[in-house]
Amino acid sequence: MSVARRPLLTATAAGTLLCALWFVPSANATDEELAAEQRRAVVAQSEQELRLADTGGVDTTPYLLGGTGFLVVGAGFVTLAMRRGGRAY
Predict the structure, then answer these.
(1) pLDDT tens digits, residue range 28-86?
(2) CA 29, 34, 39, 42 torsion: positive or negative?
(3) Where in the sequence is the signal peptide annotated (predicted)?
(4) Which residues of 31-43 are buried (b: 16+ CB within 10 A; e: fewer)?
C-alpha cells in the first residue's frame, strides 16, 4: 500500500464509523406517559422554588486547570509537529 493512500483509507474508515454510529438507536426505554408526568412534576417543583442563577457550591478550579493543561500540551504537540514537518526522512 502506498503512503499516499493511507490518509484516504484512514479518513474513509473514520467516516464509515461515524455514519454507522449515527444510526445506533438510543437506549431510552421509558414509558412516555410516565415521562410526561415526571416532567410536569419537575416543572411544578421548579415553579415553586424560583431560584435563578444558583451556581454556588461548585468549584470549577480543577476544570480550569485541567483544560489549561490540555491546551498547553496540545500546543506543544502542534509546535513539535511543525518543527519536524520541515525535515525529510
Answers:
(1) 655 666 667 777 777 666 655 555 555 666 788 888 999 999 999 999 999 988 888 76
(2) negative
(3) 1-29
(4) eeeeeeeeeeeee
Distant-in-sequence, close-in-space partners of 9: CB < 8 Å, separation ≥ 6: 1
The DSSP-derived string for 38-86 is HHHHHHHHHHHH---S--TT---HHHHHHHHHHHHHHHHHHHHHHHHHT
Residue 19 is which amino acid? Answer: C
C-alpha Rg value of the chain to the nearest Å: 24
